[in-house]
Structure formats: structure tokens, C-alpha cells
């Protein structure tokens, strides 16, 4: 989903302003692409091509499956001995569809109830900080929006969802999100202010999650408000969230990945992976199980105690999910 890094990205530097928010670019952006950057770009392009091919194959397989089911249905109807039998088959199919629709409506209602309860009744507060739009290109922004969709869908499926906040939700970021079908109805707190303003009376409870922190998260404290950086950058802006939190004088913590997993690449995960790990942990209170269920196989080499096969690492992705199913879950909140 994520596009190739732009030319010259490895040499781009930025100076972060005292608030740690808006970097200013230097002339280094103009430099030609390094050998390493070219290699990375090629790898990314191959990955995108493979992904597009896989998506096309899946679409084709779904189409064939739909046609097969239609043929099966027509054959069944054709085998009906009388018109009465034929009508019975049509009626029972209608009934089945109605039941499925009702079941979906019930599921949707109970999901909304769970989300509302989390909002009113002390669900773990988790913020997605959306103040990095200026550091992403359109494709990265689209990728982030998709990750946020995953976050919303996964949270809705949890028995005890988290109380989710989108902060810094304005400008280009807001425009991108607003294009999502059903977004207006999402049961999520959308805040155009920064989390630092929105939670100014609870600053001591803010914890910015960042892989660069020296502090390891041991458990989730219901009083704390955990912040995830809304950034798709293939870690181009390494340390940006740590610097931001330090400048703002708020706590930071990294997930305890190193204690449970050996990663085949960096320990920097995507926004939706981090949220899913937190949600699994809230459900199981077991970090190891949470990491194993969420971190894609290709990103790990095994658990921290045992050696196993090395899997080729692909960097930030959303994981292979069913996009159509995801959209269905997000539409109409
Ligand atoms: C793709 S990462 C962004 C990396 C970015 N360069 C940075 O400095 O945060 C998206 C966000 O997920 C969270 N995250 C990713 N890996 C993490 C880890 N191992 N521990 C804690 N938080 C993590 C952080 O909040 C991070 O900002």
C-alpha cells in the first residue's frame, strides 16, 4: 500500500522546531539518490508489484467463486420438479439472506454499544497522533488512513474496546479521513487540537509509545493515555516521536518486543500493529501471545529464547487483510 520512498530520502534532514512539531527541510533533499536508497526503492517497487498481482488474483478468485455459487444455485433451481418446489427454494434462500442481514445488524448494534461503553465507561485511552501529515506524501497518507481504518475495525471487534482518540485531526489529514465511507459516524473521539492541548490537565498521564524510548512498557495502566504516532515513514524520521515527547516533557515507552520476540528487521511496527498488540494485551494480559498474534511471521525470527528460520523482512505493511471486509465493517460505523 505504501509507496516507494521519494528520491533522495536517505539524505533528507530536518530540524525540529522547539515544540518538536514542524521540521524545516534543508537543501540536502536535492542530492542524487544513494546506492542504498536505489536498492531500497527497487525492493519497494518489487514488493508493490507483487502486492498488486496478489490483489488482482484475489479479486479474480472472488469473481470465480461468485460465478460458481450462481451456477450452483441455478442448477439447484433447475432440478426442482415442480413450480411449487421452485418457489420453496426461492423462499428459503430469501429467508436465509434475511437471517444473515439481521445477524449483521445485531453485530453492528452490539459493536456500537461496546464502543460507546468504552467511551463513557473507562475504556483504556489510546490516542493516534495525527500531527505528521506534512511529513508524508499522498501515498503514505493513504496508507496511514487505511491503518486507521484497521484500528477502528479491530477495536470494534474487541469485547472490551479501547477508548480511541484521533488528535491533530485537521487540514490534509482531516480531508483524507473524511473521504472514508462512514467516517462521520465512527464512534471515536475526533479532536482537531493536539493531544497536549486536549489532555492539558492530564499531562502527567500521557505516555508516547515509541520504539526509540529507553523505557520498556511492562503493563498497561488504565489511568494512562497511550499515544501512537500517526506516521508512515519506513522509519525515515527515526526518533521524531521520541524528540517530540521529550520536548513536550511527557513520558515515553517502547513495547517489550525484545523480551519476547526476535525480529528479522527493526522493532518499529505500523500504527495498526501497535494498536492491535495493545488491544490483545488488554484482553489477555500476555505480551508474548499478543506479539505472536499480531507481528507478521515474516518480521520475526522466532521467540527471544529460541532460534528458528529467518524470514525475509518486508517493512511497514498493513498486514494481509481483506480490504472489502474491512470497509464493510467501517461503513456505517
Ligand atoms: C511507523 S511508526 C513511526 C516511526 C517513527 N519514525 C517514530 O519516530 O515514531 C508508527 C508509530 O507506532 C508506534 N510504534 C511502532 N513501533 C513501536 C514499538 N516497538 N514500541 C512502541 N511504539 C511503537 C510509535 O508510536 C510510532 O510513532
From TrEMBL:
Q: Which Gene3D superfamilies match?
A: 3.40.1280.30
Which keywords does this Swiss-Prot/TrEMBL entry list? Methyltransferase, S-adenosyl-L-methionine, Transferase
Regions of compositional bias (Basic and acidic residues) in chain numbering: 45-86
Q: Name one GO molecular function term.
A: tRNA binding
Q: Which reactions is this enzyme annotated as catalysing?
A: guanosine(9) in tRNA + S-adenosyl-L-methionine = N(1)-methylguanosine(9) in tRNA + S-adenosyl-L-homocysteine + H(+)
**GO BP terms in the entry:** tRNA N1-guanine methylation
> What cellular component GO annotations does this protein have?
nucleus
- Region Disordered: list its residue ranges: 1-86, 302-325
Do you know which PROSITE patterns this protein is assigned to?
A: SAM_MT_TRM10 (PS51675)
Q: What class of enzyme is it?
A: transferase
Entry EC number(s): 2.1.1.221
Query: Is Transferase given among the entry's keywords?
Result: yes
Domain SAM-dependent MTase TRM10-type per the UniProt entry, residue ranges: 111-302
This protein is called tRNA (guanine(9)-N(1))-methyltransferase
Organism, as annotated: Oldenlandia corymbosa var. corymbosa
